[in-house]
User: What shape does this take?
Amino acid sequence: MIKDRYHPLWLWFYSSWFRSLQKIHFRKITVISDDLFSEGESVLLLQNHFSYYDGYWSMYLCNKVFRRRFHVMMLEEELAKRMFLTRCGVFSVKKNSRGLIESLNYASELLQDPLNVVTIYPSGEIISHHQQNFEFQQGFIRIAGNHANHSLIALAVVLVDHFSQARPEIRIYLKKYSGERTVEAIEQAYHSFYQSCVNKQTE
Assistant: This one.
């Protein structure tokens, strides 16, 4: 696997660059949540994966809501093309390989530090954000079910709409998960939350 080589200066540069792109391409970003995420616990962030900007939305949540260090799991073949991202907290996973377990264990290690956020896209691939019910990759439960890291689990759904404007608005719906740490329970909770977010989006 490819481990991250986190460096705050690189993260600042990357975040600043995307803030510039954000101002050009998007009209507004809004985080919608009724939950508070207190300090003292790491966060496992489960987020839908539908665009080039998904890592930035995760980083935005780390900076604005969680106030913890950003880490995200990316497919190894994609990260190998963009090795500079390792400086921003990106590490690799290679599905259907021996290295998968190493990546999952590494994510669990990161979550043992209460200053970290680890983002995982449970779909395992980019899919349309109109596709609400997708199958979770089974490996993530090795992280979510690891009681040694004492992490919070946060569910994030990112939705995009233009409404009557030329540039789209980004709405990030965020919720703290407090149920059983099984694949079935977390997947069901995420899909239920996703549907409720779509309902709010269309009100």
About this structure: The CA atoms of residues 118 and 176 lie 14 Å apart. The mean pLDDT is 90. The radius of gyration is 16 Å.
